[in-house]
Design goal:
- The protein folds into two domains: 123 residues; 132 residues, de novo design (two linked rop proteins).
- Helices cover 77% and strands 0% of the residues.
- It is built from ten helices and no strands.
- It is rod-shaped, with a radius of gyration of 44 Å.
Amino acid sequence: MSGPLPLAEVTPAYPGEPVGPEAQPPSRALTRLARIGWVAGALVLSLGTAGIVTGMSRSPADGSRPELTWAADQAVAPGLAAAADKLTDLTGEVNQLGEFGRDAIADLVNRDTTQLNAAIASGTTQVAKISADTAAIRVALVTLPVIGTADETAIGAAERQRYDAITVALSTTADLETSWVELTTGSSVATALTKDLADHDTYAGQAVRLGSTAKYAQARAALIKAKAALASAATRRDALANTVDVSILSQWIDRNAAFDTAAATLYKLLEASPHKVTPAIQAAFAALSVAKQNLPPDTRGLEVILDDLARGGLNQAVITIEDAKNSLATAVALIQAASPSTGP
């Protein structure tokens, strides 16, 4: 039979849809399988995307895996923050120690023995406190979770950087006790040296006054004490020679020793011949006059000597303390600048 086809037979079907009487609706089983396939594909796609995001979130420089270390980072963060706070306090303690050191040097130059001893005592107490607080921070760091393991990647790069900064800063306090002992020892030597020189001047002055009143035997006895004080000063001078320039001190000792010898010689001759001026007495007078002219006119030489001592070992000890303080301050700044982990 000829003629136009029915409208249904010429209507185009959707792609993949059978045309004609053989087209049948899909079964329920096929529909379920299709849906499962789409869900599986979506899961695969989402997992792949997550991997890309994770890879992008890692630092290409340190190879860290924040998504793997986040829990450990959160566990150590409070302890690191507490250690950083204690490190700030430790910086203040070291700064105070530096002030005690500078006070000790000033008191030494001013020959203020009372204040010098007070500064040394305060510094010694401060050193003990610094040592105790440093040890406490070390113990707190060791007991942090995960830190004690051999795996350095157990925590994130930021936390590891903070931890390392704290431990390095703590190491700078190791030499403080030794430096303070050196400062104390140097101050003690300088104080004793100052006393020796002062004692010499006292006894030598007594000898001159006694000799001027013809008390020659007593004058010679005073000179023996003056020479003993000067000999003690020379011994201390020799102990400092390896670390401090003692050239001025040596000149001071030598010139005073020459005066003491000349005075003792004259008084002995005068005691033997109190009523007659012999040629030997005249020569002794001349030698004493030369020795007197060579003596320092005032105590400014002593101040130079003490300044040399202060600029020697004592100054180096204070410099060591200042270096430790600066290292601690730098570490604190670095720790404060580091951002702790906020999430996986």
